[in-house]
Specification:
Helix content is about 45%, strand content about 10%. It is α/β, with parallel strands linked by helices. The protein has a single domain, classed as TIM Barrel. The termini are far apart. About 45% of the residues are buried.
Length: about 325
C-alpha cells in the first residue's frame, strides 16, 4: 500500500519529493529483448548522478509504448528492486485504456512506487470532458497519488491546459502536474491556477528556476520530474545539475542562474532544438547516454536510429563542453 492516505497525497509529495527525478532509457539486447542486467546498471549509474533525488520510470524516454504490458511490469519490478527504497520513484502507467492504467497503477503501487504518472489518452478523438472522465475513472480505482501530464509538445497531440487541470482538483489523490512547456506564460498560468493546491513541476531547469523566482510564496515545489539533462550535461568533474539544484534549494538564485546558462547552452544543441519542432528525439538522446557509459542497444520500432552525422555532431559538442575526453561514435 502507499505510504500515505489518498487524502494526504498532495502534502506527502510536496514534503518528500526533492531534487531531480531523472528518466531512464530501456536497453535492449541484440534480439530485441529487454537487457535486464543493463537496466539495473543504468539505474545504479543514474542514482549516482549529482542532483538526482528520485527516478521517473516509463517516461516518454523509456519507450513504454513499444513494450508489452508484461514487459512494462517487469521494468517496473526491476526499477523498484534496484532502487530498494533509497529514493522516491514515480512510475508512468499511461495507456489509452483506462482499465490498463488502473491495472498498471496497482502493480506499481504493489511494487513500492511512490506515485504514478498518467498522461491524457494519446490517440483517438479526445475532448476536455472525455479526458476529465478518464482521469476520474482511474483515480477512483487506485489508492496511490496520481500525477497528470501537461505538455505543449505536439508529439502527444493533446494539451491538458491550466483550466482542465483546475477542473481535476476535486480528485483528492491528484497530487501534481508535470507541466513541460517552453512557454513561460502558460507555465505561470498553471502555477497561478492550481499551484497552491497541487505541485506544479517541470522537467526543465529554466522553467523550474523561473517558478522559484516568480512565486516566492513557496508554491513552486522542490523537485523536477521527468528530467533527462542530468544524464548528458554533466559529469563528475562538472556536476552542473547537482550545483544547480543545490543553489535553487538554498535560494541562491544568482548561482542557479549561472548554472542554468551552462546547462541550457549544452541542451540547446543536443535536445532543445527538437523541442522547438514539437518532439523528443528519443533515439538520439538514448545514444548520447551510451557515450556516458549507459547500456542502450538501440530502439524499437517505430523509433528509427539517429544518423551518423547527428551522433558525430553531438559527440563533438560534448567534447567541446569538456564532458567527454574524446569524440566517440
Amino acid at each position: 500500500m502507499a505510504a500515505y492516505a489518498r487524502s494526504a497525497a498532495r502534502d506527502w509529495v510536496r514534503e518528500h519529493f526533492r531534487g531531480y527525478f531523472t528518466v531512464l532509457y530501456t536497453p535492449f539486447l541484440n534480439d530485441g529483448e529487454i537487457d535486464q542486467a543493463g537496466l539495473r546498471r543504468n539505474i545504479a549509474a543514474t542514482l549516482a548522478l549529482p542532483g538526482v533525488g528520485g527516478l521517473s520510470v516509463h517516461s516518454i524516454h523509456q519507450e513504454f509504448w513499444t513494450l508489452t504490458k508484461t514487459e512494462r511490469k517487469r521494468v517496473t519490478e526491476i526499477a523498484m528492486e534496484t532502487v530498494d527504497g533509497r529514493v522516491p520513484v514515480v512510475v508512468g502507467v499511461s495507456d489509452n485504456s483506462a482499465r490498463n492504467v488502473v491495472d498498471l497503477a496497482w502493480h506499481a503501487q504493489d511494487c513500492g512506487a511512490d506515485a504514478v504518472m498518467v498522461w491524457p489518452p494519446f490517440y483517438g478523438p479526445r475532448t476536455a470532458d472525455g479526458v476529465r472522465a478518464f482521469y476520474e475513472y482511474v483515480a477512483a480505482r487506485i489508492d496511490i497519488g496520481m500525477i497528470a501530464y501537461s505538455t505543449t509538445l505536439t508529439e502527444l497531440g493533446y494539451y491538458l491546459d491550466p483550466g482542465q487541470v483546475e477542473a481535476l482538483l476535486p480528485i483528492e489523490n491528484l497530487c501534481a502536474v508535470q507541466n513541460t512547456t517552453v512557454d513561460m506564460a502558460l507555465y505561470a498560468e498553471m502555477m497561478e491556477r492550481v499551484g497552491t493546491q497541487i505541485s506544479v513541476t517541470t522537467s526543465l531547469e529554466e522553467t523550474f528556476l523561473h517558478g522559484k523566482q516568480a512565486f516566492p510564496d513557496d508554491r513552486a515545489p522542490d523537485f523536477l520530474l521527468g528530467a533527462s539533462r542530468p544524464l548528458f550535461v554533466q559529469n563528475a568533474a562538472q556536476p552542473r545539475c547537482g550545483r544547480f539544484i543545490e543553489a535553487v534549494l538554498r535560494k541562491d538564485f544568482e548561482k542557479a542562474a549561472e548554472e542554468v546558462r551552462g546547462i541550457t547552452a549544452i541542451a540547446a544543441k543536443l535536445q532543445s532544438r527538437y523541442f522547438a519542432r514539437g518532439f523528443h528525439h528519443i533515439a538520439l538522446s538514448k545514444e548520447i547516454t551510451r557515450l556516458f557509459g549507459m547500456a542502450t542497444g538501440g530502439t524499437r520500432p517505430p523509433l528509427g536510429a539517429p544518423s551518423a552525422e547527428e551522433l558525430a555532431e553531438c559527440s563533438e559538442i560534448l567534447v567541446s563542453a569538456g564532458l567527454l575526453e574524446r569524440s566517440v561514435s
